[in-house]
From TrEMBL:
InterPro entries in the cross-refs: NAD-cap_RNA_hydrolase_NudC, NADH_PPase-like_N, NudC-like_C, NUDIX_hydrolase-like_dom_sf, NUDIX_hydrolase_CS, NUDIX_hydrolase_dom, Znr_NADH_PPase
Family: Belongs to the Nudix hydrolase family. NudC subfamily.
UniProt keyword NADP, yes or no: no
EC number: 3.6.1.22
MF (Gene Ontology): hydrolase activity
SUPFAM superfamilies cross-referenced by the UniProt entry: Nudix (SSF55811)
Pfam family, one: NUDIX
Keywords: Hydrolase, Magnesium, Metal-binding, NAD
Protein name: NAD(+) diphosphatase
The encoding gene: nudC
Domain Nudix hydrolase residue range list: 125-249
Cofactors that this protein relies on: Mg(2+); Zn(2+)
Annotated organism of origin: Qipengyuania spongiae
Amino acid sequence: MNWRARLLALDGLMPGMDESGALAWTTLADAPEGCDLVFLGLDEGKACFAAVPEAGDIAPRLANPALWQAMASLRPDDLAIYGGARSLVDWHARHRFCAQCGGPTTLAKGGWQRDCGNCGAQHFPRTDPVTIMLVEHNDRLLLGRGKGWPEGRFSALAGFVEPGESLEEAVAREVLEESGVVVGEVRYIASQPWPFPSQLMIGCHATATSDAITMDETELAEIGWFSRSEVAAALVGEGPFTAPPAQAIAHHLLTWWIEK
């Protein structure tokens, strides 16, 4: 065993934490027998690994309150490490067979690739681009509450980028589909990896041409326009809605809008 190597403590896909609330690390001797190990990188000269669990996670992230609680308690640097590790080992657990021929695949390149021993196909961890956008009209923001979200929880509209779309086209399409609102100018603000399981959130700002709403009831439970004072109050926990958590890019986009 290499004393310079560390193993990220995971319970399935949930993070293990030490007494201080930081990510817990063990040694390679604690890895389950016969499991695949993914190389995460180097930290102060020590090689860091994570073990691939027996099964991945197919449940919606909102269906796991314990995951949200753990994410909220981790420091930003630990959250970044855990998020990347979770995304990678989850992908391995759910891609043990080749999408081309159905044959078994094996881990390669330290866990950043899987190879099919039957047809030779190479498979790589995927990242799904998602636009998340602040839609503005006359100094108000369009925010929605998704199906199954807690009462009062509102956030920016969001949706996956489809094949062949630009980011601007994806923003315009998603806003139109979910709210019936037409947008004009779209600009990029910031991005955030959101590896639950494998998304890259691309934050944008869009200007609406009108404020008329036709809500998509299959996607949203509520939608509405909120003033600058209402958004500012929500960010400090004083209503009229519950803002996204601080670790989400939606929270930072709302803060950016208030401060700009």
